[in-house]
Specification:
290 residues; 10 helices; alpha/beta; 34% helix; two-stranded antiparallel sheet; Spore Coat Polysaccharide Biosynthesis Protein SpsA, Chain A
Length: 290
């Protein structure tokens, strides 16, 4: 069984729900305190032993490439001013992994990035990730998934329970009774038709079999190509696919203003250098609000 050494990150979205902030900046570059969203995603992958990171981009994503590239002018400035720790941090960005950039081609939908990167991950298992989904956990969630794969060889997707009134925003899984094996998975079902409250999110382990199914998958809801539709076909044809819950952690989406702010606060509250004053400030705000 081949080891997982590659990851594909979908970063070709436009971030329209965060306009005008995303007019001239990719949504994945928005900061969570002092790190862009995409860096936190990459750090999670690197902690899991991923060596090759394939970012599926479009024309306006050059800042992503620049972020993981060397900046010799900045490095010289930091060195000249004796900021050695900052210098190490900046240099490390380009050395975290082997970064590969591929332009997305094809229809809208979260299945298209997989096909765009298919030739690079051919015949290998790989991690597939949304570039604006964070998982804050004690141990990298990708590492949790890869460790499970090393033991079982099972394909899987991350899941987390969501409120009932939010099931129509996500792919929702139905599990075989008493197991984590997926019996069915539906993209954005109506609330009355949702088989559970377990929503899938942007962490999954796929392989060539899923890629092959995806190549023959028709456009689905909204006339888009959905990875969930390919997984559903794979499962219906007897393939084994599992749901994976986060251990000691939480999925944080950043795709809209409210959830972006919530994610920032989740990370800020764990920062010893700022959490004390932050809590005091919010307590003052709450008093004023009352």
């Amino acid at each position: 069984m081949k080891k997982i050494k590659k990851a594909v990150i979908a970063v070709a979205g436009s971030g329209t729900r965060l306009l005008p902030a995303t007019k001239a900046m990719p949504k994945e570059m928005l900061p969570i305190i002092d790190k862009p969203i995409i860096q936190l995603v990459v750090e999670e992958l690197v902690e899991a032993g991923i060596k090759d990171i394939i970012l599926v981009t479009k024309w306006d994503k050059k800042p992503l490439e620049d972020h993981f590239d060397r900046n010799f002018e900045l490095e010289c400035s930091l060195k000249k001013n004796g900021k050695e720790e900052r210098l190490k941090e900046i240099v490390k960005l380009s050395e975290m992994a082997n970064f590969i950039y591929v332009r997305q081609k094809g229809p809208y939908g979260n299945g298209t990035p997989v096909l765009s990167a298919a030739s690079i991950v051919e015949d290998e298992p790989f991690v597939y990730v949304w570039g604006d989904d964070l998982v804050k956990s004690k141990i990298s969630f990708t590492k949790q998934m890869v460790d499970d794969y090393d033991k079982t060889g099972s394909l899987m997707i991350g899941v987390q329970e969501v409120p009932k009134d939010q099931v129509d925003r996500y792919g929702i899984v139905k599990l075989q009774p008493g197991t984590m094996r997926i019996e069915d998975i539906m993209e954005k079902p109506n609330i009355e038709h949702a088989p559970s409250l377990l929503a899938d999110f942007g962490r999954m382990i796929l392989n060539q079999e899923i890629v092959d199914v995806l190549k023959n998958t028709s456009l689905g809801k909204g006339n888009e190509l959905w990875i969930v539709d390919a997984i559903r076909t794979y499962v219906k044809n007897g393939g084994e696919f599992y749901a994976k819950k986060i251990e000691d952690g939480k999925w944080l989406t950043t795709g809209d203003p409210l959830n972006y702010l919530k994610a920032t606060l989740e990370y800020a509250i764990d920062r010893d250098d700022i959490n004390g004053e932050l809590v005091e400030y919010f307590q003052e705000l709450i008093k004023r609000k009352k």
